[in-house]
Amino acid sequence: MDMAINSPIQRDVGIYIHVPYCRTLCPYCDFVKQRSRGQAPEVFTDALIREIGAYDGPALAQSVFFGGGTPSLLAPRALECIFATLHRRFTFAGKPEVTLEANPDDVSRDLAKTWLDLGINRISLGVQSFHEATLRHLGRRHDAASALRACETIASLFDNWNLDLIFGAPPIEHWPDTLARTVALRPPHVATYGLTYEPGTPFERRRDQAVDDETWLRLYRQAEEVLGDYEHYEISNLARPGFQSRHNLMRIIPVSARGPTHSSAACARGTTPRTTPTSPILGGRKSVSH
Ligand SMILES: C[S@@+](CC[C@H](N)C(=O)[O-])C[C@H]1O[C@@H](n2cnc3c(N)ncnc32)[C@H](O)[C@@H]1O
Ligand code: SF4
In the chain, where are the structural domains located? Predict the structure, then answer.
């Protein structure tokens, strides 16, 4: 199937839009982002719209993925303008998968309804853990209660949603409980990422706290076991039948993108748009799976 998607005859694209703003910067994260007190600035949306307008590659699109950074910081009006521009530049095949990554404490019922009305049909929630100590260790701005609230709100409105978790963050004894709470919420899709200690992040200095390979594997397998009726279709991704992410399944199709550092626009699969400073990105694919 990938072959067909990538053949010169049928060159469907998956659109990745990177939103490089976060209200607080997590000390383990080296994705491209900068601090923003409130919503993503208008200057970003304007530049992104210009970049989409200048795109002249394959135009049949299967999916749109707003990744970050924190796409839930995009104002509804900004999303509206972005969608209007995407519709001018792309033809969407059938019902495209349209995902937005959200931080739990940005989620309210009204905002989630607005996302639905705008055509977003999949939310990826950055929960990471349901335990206060782990969330504090990771420097997250949400607590366990707001993570749970966000999941319940999203589950009540969206058929298709994902919950991101991080394993290997101390205290690791909480991992099975986080998994149990996850299963109880029945998210259609779960992504589990082992905590990495990236160069240039504050966590680089804490490398000695990293779990050994054996523990890493044990935690990874625990997720697989607890999420036993999910299909483990990619290294970090598990889905209930029919809920594999189309965005994850498509292979990268490099596209040109304008801007100061256009090379980061088309990232290779398996890498992440991390430390490279970047312009607003209209990429053929996002590089990290969700
Ligand atoms: C870069 S974030 C963007 C979405 C959103 N801002 C959030 O934090 O949930 C996407 C996912 O990357 C993962 N991630 C980022 N840095 C990581 C690291 N050093 N180790 C493991 N996972 C990481 C987290 O699970 C996070 O949910
Ligand atoms: S993990 Fe998410 S919220 Fe935290 S700094 Fe990275 S992109 Fe921002």
Answer: 2-283
